[in-house]
TrEMBL record:
One Pfam family in the UniProt entry: FeS_assembly_P
Cited InterPro entries: Fe-S_Maturation_MIP18 (IPR052339), FSCA_dom_sf (IPR034904), MIP18-like (IPR002744)
Residue stretches making up the MIP18 family-like domain: 54-124
Alphabetical list of Gene3D superfamilies matching this protein: Fe-S cluster assembly (FSCA)
Name of protein: MIP18 family-like domain-containing protein
Organism for this UniProt entry: Azospirillum thiophilum
Species lineage: Bacteria, Pseudomonadati, Pseudomonadota, Alphaproteobacteria, Rhodospirillales
Domain of life: Bacteria
Amino acid sequence: MPDETLTQRPIAPTPAEAEAQVKADTTADAPEAKDFAPMPKPPEGFDPREEIMDRVVAAIKTCYDPEIPVDIWELGLIYRVDMDGERNVEIDMTLTSPMCPVAGELPEQVRQAVLGVEDVNEAKIALVWEPPWHQGMMSEEARLQLDMF
């Protein structure tokens, strides 16, 4: 004799039941609010722009005049670095000489390095010639590296 037990298929849940199930599914694995520590407050006087500027200077220090084995920051080729509230950076820089063979390339290299810094929106580089660069603009570190003491 054939088995006469009927297999029932579940009927579709009502919209309220479906919503309740979705809510249960999404909160079942969610950590409770007490599992999260509150975000620490930044120290008194903390300015996130200072931290970004530190990273901008670090990026500039990756750029070298190919004829001199010292980065352009330590050479004293960067005259000004400013950042506005929109996190746009403006840099005034010079070269060791107006006849420098990388005059067309080095400013773009600096711009690309600065644009690579997280949180920087734009970078503008102005090549300036006043005041003229001289060896006295180099840092002590650069003079040590170049044995100029």
